[in-house]
Design brief:
The protein is of the alpha/beta class. The chain contains 17 helices and 20 strands. It is globular.
Length: 568
C-alpha cells in the first residue's frame, strides 16, 4: 500500500465513496480507511429489524452519475437498510472503488505536519500514511451511545445496540425482550420485535411524535416517469429547505382556518412521511402554529391506541420536529398487542440493569434480551474519538470542548487541508443526506483542484470567517423552536456534552448558494498559502442543479419575521 497519497478519506459510507470517486476523477491518489468489514457506513451498521430510510429512495440516492440513477431500480418507496446496502455495494463495484479502500481499519490519529504541509494518518492496524489532504467522511450518527446504567455488565442475557447490530440474523422468538429508547430507531424496531417476542417491554423516557411512513412497493410506472426526467425531481428537491421534496408551502398555520389546517394535516398523514413538516411555513417558528400539528398527532394517537392510559403515556408533550420527527410503520398500533408493555421511565426511572433484566423504581422486568435504541454521540462523536491535531499540536477535541466550531461545516481554523463532510455547521442531518454529501464532495474536489492548479500548499479558514459562520448558525437556530428541546441536535442526549445547536438550519438552498459564493469569490474567508500563481477566482461548477435564486441575507431574522422565507 502506498505510504504517500494525495488524500486520505476516513469512512466508506455514502460520503466516503462519493468523495473517493470525485478525487479519482481528478487523477488523485486516495486511500480510504473504513472501520467496518464492508462499505456502507450507517447502512452497514444499522441492521436492526425495521431499519429503513425516511427519505424516499428515488431521492435518497446519488445523482453524480446519470447512468447509475437510470440503471438502479428501487423496489420500495422507502428503501430498507438491506436494499440501500446493496445499492452502496453496487456503487463500490460499478465505479471500481474497492481497490482504494482498506476495510476493518480504524483511523486512530491524524496529525498535521507543519513543515511538510501534510497529514500523518495512523490506523489500528499499524498503517502510517502521509497525505496532503485529510477528509473526514465519518458520518453524523455513527458513534453509538450506550448509557452506563448501573449493573449493565451483570446482565446474563443478550444485549444489542441498534447502531451496532450483528450481521447474523437475530431471532427473538419466544423471548422476553426489553427495548430502551423510542427515537427513530426504537420506533422502527419495536413493531417488528413485538411480532417475534413472547413479551416486549418498551422503556420510554420521552414520548415522540411520529407519522406513518405509508411505505409501499414502488410502482414501476412511477419509477419510469421519474427516470424519464430525473433532473426535474432532483431540482425540485434542491429548492426545498430539507433538500428533498417535502412539498413545503409558504402558507402559515396561524392564518389558516381550523378546517384548512385539519385538511392539510390529514392529507399529509395519509400520504405519509416527513413531508408532514412541510404543511405550514411557520411550524418550526411559532409555538402556536406548531401546537396545531401537535394536537393533530395527539388526536391520532388517541384514536389508534385502544387503552386510554397507554395512549396518555405515549402522548408527546413537546414541539413537533424539535426532536427529529419519526416516520413509522404500525408503531402506535403495536401498543394494542397483548404481549407489549409500555414503561414510562420518567415516572419510574431505570435504577439498574440486573443479572435477569431491568429494575425500575416500581418493578423488576425479567428479560432474555435488551435492545439499546439509545442513539448516538451525534455530529462530533466520531471525530472526537480520533486524535486529530492541527497546527501547533492543537487537538480538535480541545478546540471543540465548548461545542463544534467550523466555517460552513466544511473546515475549521487551525486545521489546514482538513475537510469534514456534512460536519456541524452544515445542513447535514436537517437535510437529505445524499445531496448534501454530493454537494460537499463537489465543493471539496473543486477546492483541491483549485489549490493544485495554483500550486498552493495549504488552505484553512480565517478565525473571523469561522466566528461569523458560527454566529450565523446560532442566530438562525435561535429564530426557530429547535433549541428549545433536549435533542441530539443540541448534544443534549450525552451527559456533559456542551449544549450547542450543531446543524445549520438555514435550509439547503441557502447554504449551497453561500458555499458557491465563497468559492466564486476566490474562497472568501479562507487563507490560501503558498500559491505560485495569482489566486484567481476559481472556475466554479455552478450547475442548474445547485443554483438557487436566494441570497444568504434573506435568512436573517428580520426576513424570517417578515415571513419572506419558508425556512423549515
Ligand atoms: O436515537 P435518538 P435513534 N434512559 O437519540 C432514549 C436517525 N435515524 O437511534 O428522548 C432512557 O433519537 C432517548 O430518550 P430521550 C435520525 O436522524 C433515522 O433513535 O433522550 N432512555 C430516546 O428515546 C434519528 O433522529 C432513521 O428522553 C434513554 C432514544 O433513547 C437519529 O438517527 C432511523 C436514555 C434515543 O433516540 C437517532 O435516532 C433511525 C437513558 N439513559 C435513526 N438515553 C430513519 O431514517 C437515551 N434514551 C427512519
Amino acid at each position: 500500500m502506498a505510504r504517500t497519497v494525495d488524500a486520505v478519506i476516513v469512512g466508506a459510507g455514502f460520503a466516503g465513496l462519493c468523495m473517493l470517486h470525485r478525487l479519482r476523477q481528478q487523477g488523485l491518489g486516495v486511500r480510504v480507511f473504513e472501520a467496518g468489514s464492508g462499505v456502507g457506513g450507517t447502512w452497514f451498521w444499522n441492521r436492526y429489524p425495521g431499519a429503513r430510510c425516511d427519505v424516499e429512495s428515488l431521492e435518497y440516492s446519488y445523482q453524480f452519475s446519470d447512468e447509475l440513477q437510470q440503471e438502479w431500480a428501487w423496489t420500495e418507496r422507502y428503501a430498507s437498510q438491506a436494499e440501500i446496502l446493496r445499492y452502496l455495494n453496487h456503487v463500490a463495484d460499478r465505479f471500481d472503488l474497492r481497490r482504494d479502500i482498506a476495510l476493518e481499519t480504524r483511523v486512530t490519529s491524524a496529525v498535521f505536519d507543519e513543515q511538510a504541509n501534510c497529514w500523518q494518518v495512523r490506523t489500528d492496524r499499524g498503517d502510517e500514511v502521509t497525505a496532503r489532504f485529510c477528509i473526514m467522511a465519518t458520518g453524523c450518527l455513527s458513534a453509538a451511545n450506550t448509557p452506563q446504567f448501573p449493573g449493565l455488565a451483570s446482565f446474563r442475557g443478550r444485549t444489542f445496540h441498534t447502531g451496532k447490530w450483528p450481521h447474523e440474523p437475530v431471532d427473538f422468538i419466544g423471548e422476553r425482550v426489553g427495548v430502551i429508547g423510542t427515537g427513530s430507531s426504537g420506533i422502527q424496531a419495536i413493531p417488528l420485535i413485538a411480532e417475534q417476542a413472547a413479551q416486549l417491554v418498551v422503556f420510554q423516557r420521552t414520548p415522540n411524535f411520529s407519522v406513518p411512513a405509508q411505505n409501499h412497493p414502488l410502482d414501476p410506472a412511477v419509477q419510469r416517469a421519474v427516470k424519464a426526467d430525473y433532473g426535474e425531481l432532483r431540482h425540485r428537491g434542491s429548492q426545498m429547505p430539507f433538500g428533498f421534496d417535502t412539498r413545503s408551502t409558504e402558507r402559515l398555520a396561524v392564518e389558516a382556518s381550523a378546517e384548512e389546517r385539519l385538511a392539510e394535516y390529514e392529507e399529509r398523514w395519509r400520504s405519509g412521511g416527513l413531508p408532514f413538516l412541510g404543511a405550514f411555513a411557520d411550524m418550526i417558528f411559532s409555538r402556536e402554529a406548531n401546537e396545531t400539528a401537535a394536537v393533530f398527532i395527539r388526536d391520532k394517537i388517541r384514536q389508534i391506541v385502544r387503552n386510554p392510559a397507554v395512549a396518555e403515556k405515549l402522548m408527546p408533550r413537546g414541539v413537533v420536529g424539535c426532536k427529529r420527527l419519526c416516520s413509522d410503520t404500525n408503531y402506535f398500533e403495536t401498543f394494542n398487542r397483548s404481549n407489549v408493555t409500555l414503561v414510562d421511565v420518567n415516572a419510574t426511572p431505570i435504577e439498574a440493569i440486573t443479572e435477569r433484566g431491568i429494575r425500575t423504581s416500581a418493578a423488576h422486568y425479567d428479560l432474555d434480551a435488551i435492545v439499546f435504541a439509545t442513539g448516538f454521540d451525534a455530529m462530533t462523536g466520531a471525530l472526537s474519538r480520533i486524535d486529530i491535531r492541527g497546527r501547533q499540536g492543537l487537538a480538535l477535541r480541545d478546540k471543540w470542548a465548548y461545542g463544534p466550531r467550523t466555517y460552513l461545516g466544511l473546515s475549521t481554523t487551525g486545521f489546514p487541508n482538513f475537510f469534514i463532510m456534512t460536519g456541524p455547521g452544515s445542513p447535514s442531518v436537517l437535510s437529505n443526506m445524499v445531496p448534501s454529501i454530493e454537494q460537499h464532495a463537489s465543493w471539496i474536489a473543486a477546492c483541491i483542484a483549485h489549490l493544485t492548479a495554483h500550486g498552493a500548499r495549504r488552505i484553512e479558514p480565517t478565525q473571523q470567517a469561522e466566528d461569523a459562520w458560527v454566529a450565523h448558525v446560532n442566530e438562525v437556530a435561535d429564530t426557530t423552536l429547535y433549541p428549545t428541546c433536549n435533542s441530539w441536535y443540541l448534544g443534549a442526549n450525552i451527559p456533559g456534552k456542551p449544549r450547542v445547536f450543531m446543524p445549520y438550519i438555514g435550509g439547503f438552498p441557502v447554504y449551497v448558494q453561500k458555499c458557491n459564493e465563497v468559492m466564486s469569490n476566490g474562497f472568501e474567508g479562507f487563507v490560501i498559502d503558498g500559491a505560485k500563481s495569482t489566486n484567481d477566482a476559481p472556475q466554479v461548477r455552478l450547475t442548474d442543479r445547485w443554483r438557487v435564486p436566494l441570497d444568504i441575507e434573506v435568512i436573517s431574522p428580520a426576513a424570517i419575521a417578515a415571513r419572506r422565507v419558508p425556512v423549515v
